[in-house]
Amino acid sequence: MEIENGHRDNLRILTVGHSDHTLEHFLNLLRLYSVEVIADTRSYPYSNFAPQYDQKPLRKALRDARVRYVHLGRELGGRPKGHQYYDLGGHVLYGKVADSGDFKAGIARLEKGIRKYRVALLCAEEDPTMCHRRLLIGRVLLRHGVEIEHIRGDGCLQSESELSQQLNGSQPQMNLFTEAEASEWKSIPSVLRKRRQSSSSAP
User: In the CATH hierarchy, which top-level class contains the domain 12-177?
Assistant: First the structure.
């Protein structure tokens, strides 16, 4: 991929949510779209409802499928450590996260990676519309000129442009991500962690 005068040339990234899919189905989705690297953006890479996506078994399954795995939950996770990143209701303040050094380092690492590999951002939710992989990471990448496509659980590939139009009717794609349209840039649900027993489904 050519980089001339500091301009990116058609950089693209995929996103995918593991939901409660079987590992076989999940791996088939990755094969369908030739994913070479999974960038796990869960702050805590474990799942109560789908333990096959705990970090250890997932890493092994990906390795056996010849897909690289990297955990970026500390840098890009949807439940960052530090009270300064949350409002009183437990919503993550995405603007503060995006301004943090860790987040910027994670974005830089992603942008470097997608110049060499076909990368998919991983989180728990099948539907990206309320997930931080889209609302936080995707928003920043869009501003950096990176194209985003979402692998859905039924095997279809949905571009960010298509998804945005679906959510906003005939309004332009970027309206969802303009400051004028958003009252506050933060997580839609409260994401305060509950004490977990042996694992957590936290994204």
Answer: alpha beta
